[in-house]
Amino acid sequence: MKISNKDVIQSYIVTTARYDFNVYEKRILYRLVELCQPQLKGQKLNAKFSINPDLWNNRDIKVPISYLLNNDEDKHHSRIKNALGRLNEKKFVYEDDKIWKPIRLIEMPEINKYSEFVEFKIHHEIFEAILNFSKGHRKFELVTAMKFKSTYAMRFYELFSEKKEPIIYSIENLKIMFKIEHKYKKINDFLRSVIEPAQKELNEHSPYSFEFKALKTGRKITAIKFYPVYIPKNRDMSVEENKLKKQTSPSWSLDKMTIDYLKQNYYFDSKEINSNIDLFKLAEKELDFMLFLSKMKRICEEKNNPKGYLINSIKKQLKGKRGK
Q1: Looking at 178-312, which runs of residues are DSSP E strands?
Q2: Pick from 257, 190, 270, 255: nearest CA to 222
Q3: Which residues have C-beta within 8 Å of that of residue 93, sequence separation ≥ 6?
């Protein structure tokens, strides 16, 4: 299946979680992240894909096996089977200031050999972690992420995508994050085998790379300071164009039902909606906005400036709600 390039949004919890995947396992994870994007925007999935909650709110996933391969030339179906089997055995370790919790990443993988579909379950907390933006998120180009040959390059790509400020990671934390605590006892081996190859691959293929400086405690290197680097020549300009289009499209920020109602009943055009986008977003958040719009429709129709009256009415309603 051809991969159309796009910026995929990945929860920072997923980005910084502790796990050790091979390349095919990572590609399945990327596809999971991509598959969950429409859930954030209230969009429907393509008919070939499905995400359905079960009685316990876990998700049943069904996708074409070609969706999990790198491109049309990638015929390694056996590697997808192995990757699904390995993911079924692995646990996603989530840890923050309050919680430590290992969760099986996928369950009950099944490939239908006659229809070429893959089915598996993901735990509801995995699904929520993928969509959890409470600790920020990273955007990365899907095609770029899918073609990396090194899992370390993949991880650093996620960490530094769209990041501008320097960041310091201790050697210990990096090893824990990559789940290689017992490898590379010598720091120079860690730099040569993990940091430098990842940097080289990012420089060659990615719009986001890094420079780094080893930091010492006494005579021992204990941390690395990373300086994010943006490489414009490696950026897919079609993704950049789509990004700009989304920024000028109200559908990127508002529920489609709200947009349609404003256009069909109040005769707003896209430009007028964008001019008041912050107000409409706030109304969606704090009011039963569709109910409010329907109640105001007849009142506004009798006014000389229905749109202006509606805008002022929304502001008054929001002010009254805050005053309570």
Answers
A1: 208-217, 220-230
A2: 190
A3: 17, 18, 19, 100, 101, 102
Report the range of poorest mean pLDDT among 44-48, 103-107, 309-313.
44-48
Instruction: Enter the tokens of residue 299.
Output: 């009142």
CATH number for the segment(s) 149-234: 1.10.10.10
**Which residues in the chain are classed under CATH 1.10.10.10?**
1-147, 149-234
Position 122 confidence tier, pLDDT thresholds 50, 70, 90: confident
Percent of the chain with pLDDT over 90: 17
pLDDT tens profile 148-161: 778 888 888 878 87
Return the structure tokens found at 153.
């390059």
Helix (H) or strand (E) holding 92: strand 91-95
Helix axes 151-160, 196-205, angle to 10 degrees: 70
What sign has the CA pseudo-torsion 292, 297, 299, 303?
positive
Residue 60, CA distances (Å) to 32, 51, 57, 219, 242 in order: 12, 6, 9, 52, 30
pLDDT at position 239 over 80: no
Its CATH class, for the domain covering 1-147, is mainly alpha
pLDDT tens-digit readout, 171-181: 998 888 888 88
Strands in 117-122's sheet, in edge-to-edge order, are 50-53, 59-64, 117-122, 107-112
User: Lowest-pLDDT range, 120-124, 201-205, 233-237?
Assistant: 233-237
Both tokens of 140, joined, read: 């990365």
Query: What percent of the residues of the chain are helix, what percent strand, and what percent coil, each to the nearest 5?
Result: 50, 20, 30
Shortest CA distance to 167 belongs to which of 220, 213, 233? 213
SS3 157: helix
Which residue, chain included where needed, has tokens 């993988």? 109
Q: Are strands 220-230 and 208-217 parallel, antiparallel or unpaired?
A: antiparallel
